[in-house]
Amino acid sequence: MASTRPRLLLRGLSIGGIGPLDAAIAPGECLALSGPSGAGKTRLLRAIADLDPHGGECRLDDRPAGVFAAPAWRRAVAYLPAEPAWWADTPRDHLRTADAPAGHDRLAALDLETTMLDRPLTQLSSGQRQRLALLRLLDGQPQVLLLDEPTANLDADNIARVEALVADYCAERDAACVWVSHDPGQRRRVAHRQLALDGRGRVTACS
Ligand SMILES: Nc1ncnc2c1ncn2[C@@H]1O[C@H](COP(=O)(O)OP(=O)(O)OP(=O)(O)O)[C@@H](O)[C@H]1O
To answer: Where would I find the ABC transporter domain in this sequence (predicted)?
Structure first.
């Protein structure tokens, strides 16, 4: 981690009775977020991405979210939903760097064929779409990744590929990551620190 100034700073973040959450995530650092189903993990990620009204403060490199235009904040602090939405027919329509070397490298890193880029999304498996959604997210070159169970539909080999790609991206770009996972083994593998919510959305444990 190149610097001690937080990439992402959260102060008193709350939404619908969930929180408050305070956290400082350094460049290159990954924070795992866990808690029972319904605890509020998704709502907190959406609050950080400024997708829903919330309380508290989020800062990127010490700049408050309020000084960013909403689309700029959401590009820099990018949220990957557990069930990503698609607005066009094929993966290529969503990927700016599909034909660039970096785009090809990332496809290969996730064991995706380039021919897949032109297939209708409706004809791809949920695991293929989940990996493509991660590529779409990285395409925007975010400084913070908010990952909501990004390997939920994947087998062990592809889980390892996703974990490696995210780790490489964060290390290369000094990006921060908040990774929601129900898998304790995955949280230990990917995260430098962990934070847990109880069933009522309060922070109960940090490590
Ligand atoms: N837009 C919303 N407005 C009000 N309540 C909501 C909204 N979205 C979800 N909820 C509720 O807020 C609580 C937290 O939901 P959330 O999706 O954040 O849980 P989660 O911890 O991500 O769960 P899971 O592990 O099952 O994905 C749940 O009780 C849910 O029903």
So the answer is: 3-205
Question: What distance in angstroms lies between residue 145's CA and the mean position of ligand 1's atoms?
Answer: 20
Compute how many other C-beta atoms are within 10 angstroms of the C-beta atom of residue 178: 28
Beta strand ranges found along 49-143 (DSSP E):
55-60, 63-64, 77-80
pTM of the model: 0.95
* DSSP states along 125-158: -HHHHHHHHHHHHHHT--SEEEEESTTTT--HHH
Q: Sheet of 63-64: strands edge to edge? A: 18-25, 8-15, 55-60, 63-64
Pocket test for ligand 1, best of 43, 148, 149, 151 (most atoms within 8 A of CB): 43
**Ligand 1 atom 8: the closest Cα is on which residue?**
43
Per-residue pLDDT of 149-206, as tens digits, reads: 999 989 999 999 999 999 999 999 999 999 999 999 999 999 999 999 999 999 986 7
Closest atom of ligand 1 to 82 CA is 27
ipTM entry: 0.97
Radius of gyration of the chain from its Cα atoms, rounded to whole angstroms: 16
Ligand 1 residue neighbourhood (C-beta within 6 Å): 16, 35, 37-43
The architecture of the domain spanning 8-206 is: 3-Layer(aba) Sandwich (3.40)
